[in-house]
Each structure stands twice: as structure tokens, then as C-alpha cells.
Amino acid sequence: NAGVTQTPKFQVLKTGQSMTLQCAQDMNHEYMSWYRQDPGMGLRLIHYSVGAGITDQGEVPNGYNVSRSTTEDFPLRLLSAAPSQTSVYFCASRAPTGFGYEQYFGPGTRLTVT
Amino acid sequence: AQKITQTQPGMFVQEKEAVTLDCTYDTSDQSYGLFWYKQPSSGEMIFLIYQGSYDEQNATEGRYSLNFQKARKSANLVISASQLGDSAMYFCAMRELGNAGNMLTFGGGTRLMVKP
What we know:
The complex is a heterodimer. By secondary structure, chain A is mainly β. Chain A has strands at residues 4-7, 10-13, 19-25, 31-37, 43-51, 54-57, 64-66, 76-78, 87-94, 104-105, 109-113. Chain A contains no helices and eleven strands. Chain B has strands spanning 4-5, 10-14, 19-21, 24-25, 32-39, 46-52, 60-61, 64-69, 74-79, 88-96, 104-106, 110-115. The N and C termini of chain B lie far apart (38 Å).
């Protein structure tokens, strides 16, 4: 099992550019989510999905879009990059049942917007 | 109000000593879970330990234990016999039944530095 994979690992964008951060998991997890981590801070939830075709907003959704066409993939789209979106982005997945199920994190994508 | 509060931005501990990292939480749910994650300088998020709100015993995983005081809404992480490899950021997180898709809410983290 590869677990949760994210591409790219690093990305530099200019203000106004768009891009898609890729996330895939091979554990057949229904629940997937995207978080951002700003320097010296904890993770904040951007968007999440509880199954294919079902997505919803988290704490900081503005400037981002998601879709979930398959169980495995959950891409995050930046519509028009802004310097405030400079952050490390983590994708995560977990099985849906119970509170104790561990959330598996990808290795992160470090994004810089200039 | 902050749902998860970690009041210690940074801490030092001598190698082989025990250390407690504080975490307080705020929820009106009866069913919730509390997690601790470690983030070394390489950046990955490593799951350490979990405590359910209905668990009567404090959770333990090797050198990690969670001091759960439900009435005080605290879930402190205790690391025994600190090692140099324990130097990292530590995050407390909570999952609530009624929270966005049962996703995690994180605290701001504590940076632990282990001195040789």
C-alpha cells in the first residue's frame, strides 16, 4: 500500500495562476480531506469529502475548489493563486466508522505564491 | 473560542526525563475523540495516540500516554524517557460527532526540544 500520495511536493506559482494539487489513496477510504498549515501553526480544514460525489466546506474554503469523482482521488484546485495561499497542504483519508479511526496524512505539498 | 488550546509554544526537556505537553479542548458534544500527532522537521504527520470521550482508562502507546481529565477538558500528552528523536512539533486534535464530516480540529502545536 502506498497510503496517501500527494503531487507535487513543491510548487511555486505567480499571483493569479491556477493549479491543481493531486491527492490519491489506495486504502479504499471513503473520507478524504484537505488541510493547510501556515508557518508555526496547526492544520486548518479546507474541504472534505465523505464519499464519491459528496464534498463540503471546512474552516477555510475560500479560493479553493474540490471534486470527488472516484473513491481514490481528491484533487484540490486553486482558482487564482494569492500570496495568502502560501502554505503547506496536507491531504488525509480515513475509514468512516468510529471515532478512533486514525487519519492517514500524505507527505504534504509546499506551495509558494509570489 | 478556540476548540483546541495548546498553551506551550515551546518546551525543553532533558534526555531521558519525562515531559508533559498540555492540551485543553472545548466541546458541547458528549461523543468526541482526542488525538496527538507528531510532526518532525521532515514535515510528515505521525499519529501517536487516541483517547475516546467514553474511554475510562487513559490511553497508552509505548512511551506515550494521554492524561485525560474529562471534567477539566484536558488531554495532556506525557512522553516518558525522552529521546533526541522526540524533538518535533506536537499537535493535539479533536474529532466531534457534529463537526464538519467528523474531521479533525487542531491546536496550534508545541515545539519540543530534547537536550542531550
